[in-house]
Design goal:
alpha/beta, 5-stranded parallel sheet, about 350 residues, globular, two-stranded antiparallel ribbon
Length: about 350
């Protein structure tokens, strides 16, 4: 099958195999790798046999060590931060490295029900036979509990508060009561939960204090420096080029640096040199959005250009990523364009391309 997007354990199968082969550390029950090797997989580096592990997370290694250490205990892990700080990316790779299975996933939405977390029923069998184990429909949480695996819950704060609290018994008692069958499902060693959440988007539901206490929280920050963010964008764009099989060449370092600088300045409300204050748009202008702008530009260059990214290709994605509110953000973008971009001689091509689109 030619999958559009492979799971982490498929895409990085060779790396996980090499890590397991070289791994001499102590492994918790039902873990494929030792905690040190999981961190090595996330942060990248060379193994003793010279094999190169690509970095999945570019940032503070201590944060990854805290996250992995949390999962060796009976505490669940909450990855917290603004949109675009690689919470989902880290969550997937943690599950892939620890249990070799990142597919046990619940995508949190306003419509996520209690049955999506606990268990459901095959109503045809339920009506015909009454409550039975055979009529029960397992959820990713139940499967993870029964098999000692990691379950991922994305966008936990998008789920309504009463449904969120369904997790309290599971996380504290490590059991899931099934009153209809007068039984309970007990978690096997190795079971844990990785949840992601942010507090910036509209429509989020605060976690109750009782639920917060069941998690160890690791806050993933925006990249500390421009160089770090450029490296993240480069790595992800290079991966996307291979996955999407775009007939385009890798963008130059200068192109990526310009996009990252625009995003950082708009996000921070000040130019990189600290001399000029600027207004910030309503959108998060995150690293993930910067990656999307470059990928969109590469698609335009590949299919409607000569395969080389140019200013016109970048401008098309830039405006769409920054101007989410057609009134407020349009004013912010116009001011930035006229007061900052226009004054930089080496950015004249971007300025002209954006003006044409405006």
């Amino acid at each position: 099958m030619n999958a559009l997007r492979e799971h982490a354990e498929q895409q990085f199968q060779e790396e996980l195999f090499e890590l397991a082969k070289q791994d001499s550390g102590s492994k918790p029950t039902n873990w494929n790798l030792s905690p040190a090797s999981v961190v090595k997989y996330l942060m990248g580096g060379k193994l003793s046999n010279g094999f190169e592990i690509t970095p999945k997370y570019i940032g503070n290694q201590r944060l990854m060590e805290i996250a992995v250490a949390t999962l060796t205990t009976d505490r669940a892990l909450l990855l917290y931060g603004i949109p675009g700080t690689a919470k989902s990316w880290v969550s997937e790779h943690l599950a892939a490295a620890i249990t070799g299975d990142s597919t046990l996933l619940i995508q949190g939405t306003a419509g996520t029900s209690e049955e999506s977390i606990r268990y459901g029923w095959n109503y045809a069998r339920l009506l015909a036979e009454g409550p039975s184990a055979e009529a029960m429909v397992s959820t990713p949480v139940m499967n993870a509990m029964q098999n000692g695996k990691i379950v991922r819950i994305e966008e936990l704060t998008r789920i309504s508060a009463d449904v969120q609290d369904t997790l309290i018994t599971i996380l504290s008692e490590k059991t899931m009561p099934v009153p209809e069958l007068n039984m309970e499902v007990q978690a096997v060693k190795g079971f844990n939960v990785i949840a992601t959440a942010n507090n910036r988007d509209k429509g989020v539901n605060e976690l109750s204090s009782a639920l917060k206490r069941r998690f160890n929280t690791v806050i993933l920050p925006v990249p500390a420096t421009q160089e770090e963010e450029v490296k993240i964008v480069q790595t992800r764009v290079e991966s996307s080029l291979k996955t999407l099989e775009l007939p385009a060449s890798m963008p130059t370092l200068q192109d990526i640096q310009r996009i990252v600088r625009i995003f950082r300045e708009l996000r921070n409300g000040v130019t990189e040199d600290g001399r000029t204050k600027i207004k910030s748009p309503s959108s998060t202008v995150s690293t993930a959005e910067a990656i999307s702008v470059v990928n969109n530009g590469l698609a335009l260059a590949a299919h409607f250009g000569n395969g080389k990214l140019n200013a016109h290709d970048l401008a098309s994605g830039l405006i769409g990523a920054i101007v989410k509110d057609p009134v407020q953000d349009a004013i912010v973008w116009k001011e930035y364009l006229e007061n900052i971009v226009k004054t930089r001689e080496e950015w004249r091509d971007i300025y002209r391309a954006c003006k044409e689109l405006n």
